[in-house]
Amino acid sequence: MVRETGLRRKPAGRAIGDGAAVGLPVELAALRGRVADATLLWAYRRAQDIGVGGDEVLIHAGFVTQDAATAAVADHLGLAIADLSKPVLVADQLVPGVLRTQSLVIATAGRPRFVLAPRGRGVRRLARLLAREPALAHRVELTTPERLRGRLVRQASGYLARMAAFGLRDRTPRHSAATIARGRALVGPLTVFAASLGAVIALVPAPALLAIGALVSLVFLSAMALRLSACFIPEGPVGEAVIPDRHLPVYTLIVPLYREAAVLPHLEAALCGLDYPMEKLDIKLVVEPDDAATRAAIRRRALPLCFETVVAPALGPRTKPKALNAALPFARGSFVAVFDAEDVPAPNQLRAALEAFRRGGPKVGCVQARLVAENASDSWISRHFAAEYSAQFHVVLPALAALRLPILLGGTSNHFRRSALEGAGAWDPFNVTEDADLGLRLARLGWDTEVIACDTLEEAPVSLRAWLRQRTRWMKGWAQTLLVHGRNPRRILRELGIRRTLGAALLTVGPFAAMLVHPLTVVVLARDLWVRTWGAPAESTVLALAAALSYTTFVAGYGATAAVTLVALYRRRRLAEGWILLTLPAYWLLQSLAAWRALIDLVVDPFRWDKTEHGISPRRVQQGAAVTDSAAARPPLGPAVAWR
């Protein structure tokens, strides 16, 4: 809890100092006599190098607290300290803007009063303003960003919770999975669909089945052709970071956590290992209100001040996208990235993403980094998962970006231009694959997505049970995404154009439909082979061609998947791991099981989030044991924001 006694009230109207006489900026000049001169000089030089205020350097290094820095500036500029112990008059809908600008205008009986929480260059601008308009000193009061945020959250927690849970649904219902048919409304259509499949298998003659299969094959062959074409498009190079430290923006990293106490040391080491000034990192750890173990583990670790804990609201579905939405209003950065608890991003990933934004221009709204499963050797299922990730992130997604086709994002290592993210409505709390949905929504709104050749190490599921739960959730989310974006074909055609709409359809409908019909395809082709083997009647040329096309599609499906995966493994210099593809038929049958479980779940419990457990891989357990706990040597933990 933030203490309320750290600031001393200063009377307004004292002489204003600007620090010029001693050659220090005002935020450091205010601390003379409280911090050693050598330390002030060091802070000044580092602030110049990385483009922040000197007070921010001192606060992050632990030489001064936020309260002490604010009190010193207020004393130096002759300003009062704001009393935020009582509610302030501010409309709920204005709270996100106040959080972003760190400034609040309070209407009084006379002229308005200004409550500011400046840091660094904001302090310098305030000093220059007061030098021009000394009379303003009686109407300006200072506080810390932490106290201003705490006051606003206490007042507007209900509004912020509603926005996190229902903001997208209320603003643009056509983009929300909350407004699609569910529960009993889906029972009828799905029953008809299942009954029709059964009738087709039982009643329709084999030749007719082959003809129907041939028509479906044309769709699947188109999707395979698109995937195969990706093999001939090279990955883009990692852009050399050309942005100097002083011009780097503040970067917000959002990490949703649920029952992740065991992986916190690993997560801290990964994020603190990023090649980025800590003073410009804004890391939000989002925890659930009933996850006392993770919250206690965060408090025990005494993380650096760039870490802040946000408690997600209990209102609405308990999903990762709602947790992400809960943190977004508190983000300080103009760029926002999402990471999972087990992620280990490459140290240069933030700089590489910024370079991709710079090269791509203002139309690039998102940058996706590559995901790599680092524990492929743990089990049979983790080997398949790792091979699948290699194909997706080293071949398919880079090609889609090069072709300017819509990209269904991976669930982590997404880097967003904040204006694009907020303009798109942020994440849909009711979609359990919020990444795929948001990627398609960004494309519909005219934003491009780039893929960078920069890795994030992830943990693949080790057990079949964990994989099945995760894959069922993914496929349920893909079904939700299909229902959301496919309910108005004319609109999406107008927004994306013919080429990009067809690409999006092949990428979304194709894989999911293929997994649904794969068992049926196996049965039909096996039945046809049986008939042919034991004396097939003469058939027309058309039916013979249809049969040939169906067999070709079946074999090509495996062949295309194997080809894309082998190209990906070759690019990663892991071609020796390609033997796992010999068991691809078994893996596809498991995917079909997950697809049918997803359809059932879509009816029974559409918004349930089946959490993937992290930190259980033997490799990760060993790594976690090797991470030393250095909490005692760190500055105090950053503030916590609690929602109710």
Automatic annotation (TrEMBL):
SUPFAM superfamilies given for it? Answer: Nucleotide-diphospho-sugar transferases
Task: State the UniProt keywords alphabetically.
Answer: Glycosyltransferase, Membrane, Transferase, Transmembrane, Transmembrane helix
In residue numbers, the region (Disordered) covers 625-644
| One GO location term (cellular component) | membrane
Positions of transmembrane segments: 208-226, 501-522, 542-567, 579-599
Q: How does it sit in the membrane?
A: Multi-pass membrane protein
State one Pfam family annotation. Glyco_tranf_2_3
- Where is this chain's protein located in or outside the cell? Membrane
Q: Name one GO molecular function term.
A: glycosyltransferase activity
Q: Which InterPro entries does its entry note?
A: Glycosyltr_2/OpgH_subfam (IPR050321), Nucleotide-diphossugar_trans (IPR029044)
| The name this protein goes by in its record | Cellulose synthase/poly-beta-1,6-N-acetylglucosamine synthase-like glycosyltransferase
